[in-house]
Design a protein that fits this description.
By secondary structure, the chain is α+β, with helices and mostly antiparallel strands. The protein folds into two domains: 11-152, no CATH class; 159-261, OB fold (Dihydrolipoamide Acetyltransferase, E2P) (Beta Barrel), CATH 2.40.50. It contains seven helices and ten strands.
């Protein structure tokens, strides 16, 4: 049975995060040092590197939690809600970062201030670095979704492992009639059975065989050989009628390319 998505605490993810943030720390320190030389205010290299390593060590510490949260946000089906979640997540991630930094490094960089008093100046002086780090985390979460979706939902057999929490069951491609969006998840309809999976409709669309399945709406995918006919309902709108008599809305966005793909 294919394995599920890696835990945010998976050792390989932690090792990758550590390596990425150490590299980012060296790049950031080098950039700051070079800017100091260019502006005539040369900074000592080792204290600059030490501060950069301290900043990015906190990103390394919290990145597993943020990757898990961002992976969930990226699976939100509705685009506007997905964008809102990512935008609102930026200040929350930055505040979490500086709060943990202030608590951890206040004895070294506090300069007589309390940990709370450190938060505002640290955030202001590292806003560009924090924005870059957040962008890199989004990119990392997106790459991990694609990697795990291909590995966990498309096994060697012709079908899908349907995950729902800790449980998983297998359904062959030939058994599937259609798939409906169900919020952040998807509901697979196979004959008289329906199964809820924790994969989004978008994630499933990426791994289903394109020759056998087609998206007909932002909330539905159909198996092509289950389609009986396409019927217009007026004003350019249409419905797809399946062989079991079920009717599903056909979006104008997908209508033009669907008819030519149907089995003769």
């Amino acid at each position: 049975m294919a394995s599920g998505s890696p835990s945010p605490f998976h050792p390989r993810l932690i090792a990758a995060a550590l390596g990425a943030w150490v590299l980012a720390a060296f790049v950031s320190a080098g950039q700051g040092y070079a800017f100091g030389v260019f502006s005539g205010r040369t900074q000592p290299w080792w204290p600059t590197l030490a501060y950069s390593l301290a900043i990015f060590s906190i990103w390394a510490l919290i990145s597993p939690f943020l990757l898990a949260a961002l992976s969930h946000a990226l699976r939100i089906e509705k685009v506007s809600l997905r964008i809102a979640a990512l935008v609102l997540g930026a200040p929350l991630a930055m505040l979490l970062h500086v709060a943990v930094f202030a608590v951890a490094f206040h004895p070294i960089y506090g300069q007589g201030r309390s940990a709370v008093d450190m938060i505002a100046p640290v955030l202001a002086s590292n806003i560009d670095t924090a924005a870059l780090a957040y962008g890199l985390l989004i990119a990392g979460a997106r790459l991990d979704i694609r990697r795990t979706a291909g590995r966990s939902t498309q096994p060697a057999a012709e079908g899908l492992w349907i995950r729902n929490g800790a449980a998983a069951s297998f359904v062959g491609y030939g058994e599937i009639d259609w798939i409906a969006a169900a919020g952040d998840y998807a509901e697979i309809h196979a004959g008289a059975r329906s199964r809820l999976t924790d994969q989004s409709l978008t994630a499933l669309a990426d791994v289903l065989p394109a020759a056998e399945f087609a998206r007909i709406h932002r909330s539905a995918i159909v198996r092509l050989d289950r389609v009986r006919r396409i019927q217009g309902v007026g004003r350019g709108d249409a419905e797809v009628e399946l062989r079991d008599g079920r009717r599903l809305r056909l979006s104008r966005r997908f209508r033009s390319g669907l008819a030519g793909r149907l089995p003769v």
